[in-house]
Design goal:
- Belongs to the synaptobrevin family.
- This protein has about 150 residues and is α+β, with helices and mostly antiparallel strands.
- The longest helix has about 35 residues.
- It starts with 5 loop residues before the first strand and ends with a helix.
């Protein structure tokens, strides 16, 4: 994979790991399962607000943009592929064969295209900023309209 910035990734439903990928040897599955056991069900700070968890382990020097882009790609692909069907009843690691290779592809893409991911992150930040300004303007119009 060239430079090893993204080390391990998995997709899980609750505490059940459905698919995972790494090129390294280690106890990743065991550690991931322990982490999933400790996640409070109401904490969505590091996960998407849905029934699945998407995780990536990366080296610290890679920053946040590449891992976050990877997670977005994986979430989109996983939902498109399984969208509430097979993933809701899948047994542990049963999606490894079909989705493990997708995790590898997304890892490779994100590692190979950091400049594209950086540009995308900047555009998304700009869109979010514009959206915030528009929402403020709409709220000001409401205030002026309702409270002249």
């Amino acid at each position: 994979m060239g430079q090893q910035n993204l080390i391990y990734s998995f997709v899980a439903r609750g505490t059940v790991i459905l698919a995972e990928y790494t090129e390294f040897k280690g106890n990743f599955t065991f550690v991931a399962a322990q982490c999933l056991q400790k996640l409070p069900s109401s904490n969505n700070k590091f996960t998407y607000n849905c029934d699945a968890y998407y995780c990536v382990v990366s080296v610290e020097s890679v920053g946040r943009q590449i891992p976050m882009a990877f997670l977005e790609h994986v979430k989109e692909d996983f939902n498109k592929t399984y969208g509430g069907g097979k993933a809701t009843t899948a047994k542990p690691n049963s999606l490894n064969k079909e989705f493990g290779s997708k995790l590898k592809e997304h890892m490779q893409y994100c590692v190979d295209h950091p400049e594209e991911i950086s540009k995308l992150a900047k555009v998304k930040a700009q869109v979010t900023e514009v959206k915030g300004v528009m929402m403020e303007n709409i709220e000001m119009i409401r205030i002026l309209f309702f409270f002249p």
